[in-house]
Amino acid sequence: MKRAEEILAALKNGEEKAFKTFFSEYHDVLVLYATNILKDVDAAEDVVQDCFMNVWENSLYDNLSNGLDKYMFHLVKNAALNELRGSKRREARHEKMMAEMPVVEMMKEDEQTEIDILYTTINQLPPERRRIFMMVCAEGKKYQEVADQLQISINTVRTQLMRSLKFLREKLKEQMFSILLFCWKKVKIRF
């Protein structure tokens, strides 16, 4: 009996240790596989982790008779391709919006006031939320980097970032919120 089949049988028996074994044995090779598609290790890590979580939380292994390893490679491939398509769509939307925006030559005095308002609003965020927001948006760190540095889960990073963006959208005029998003264009903010 192959190793993947042994792990699948143990998973079906409800052995949590089997999932940990499966994760440790296949994680690195799946990240390498996803990195080959995405050309970004951090994005590949996120995709693979999401796939493992999906398999575990939804007990997707229950319907398999064999080929757990093949199933995971197929799942990671599809998730990586979806991530790639999604990032290309986000870039295309951003480029279209940038082309439609008027060119700004010099910052005027009243524009300086808008930037002050922007930073004042950002400073109204709760300290931890503001810290996560600045690490992702201003410093350009990946979600996983922030999670590791702050010793929190990646889902907490996502949740806090989404709450920050919701707060800023509500507090700022629509135009100023758009300016905020364009200021940090190179950062992948996942909606």
Keywords:
191 residues; mainly alpha; Arc Repressor Mutant, subunit A; 2 domains; 75% helix; elongated
CATH topology of the largest domain: Rna Polymerase Sigma Factor, Chain: A
Low-confidence stretches: 103-110, 185-191
Assign the CATH class of the largest domain. Mainly Alpha
What is the terminal separation in angstroms?
A: 43 Å
Q: Radius of gyration, rounded? A: 21 Å
Mean pLDDT: 76
Could you say which structural class the secondary elements and strand pairing correspond to?
mainly alpha
What summary fits the major beta sheet?
none
Question: How many strands?
Answer: 0
Structural write-up:
The structure is a single chain. This protein folds into 2 domains: 3-87, Orthogonal Bundle (Rna Polymerase Sigma Factor, Chain: A); 101-183, Arc Repressor Mutant, subunit A. The chain is an all-alpha fold. Helix 2 (16-38) runs antiparallel to helix 3 (41-57), helix 3 (41-57) crosses helix 4 (68-100) and helix 6 crosses helix 8. It starts with a helix and ends in an 8-residue tail after the last helix. The longest helix has 33 residues, at 68-100. The chain contains 9 helices and no strands. Mean pLDDT is 76; it is low at 103-110 and 185-191.
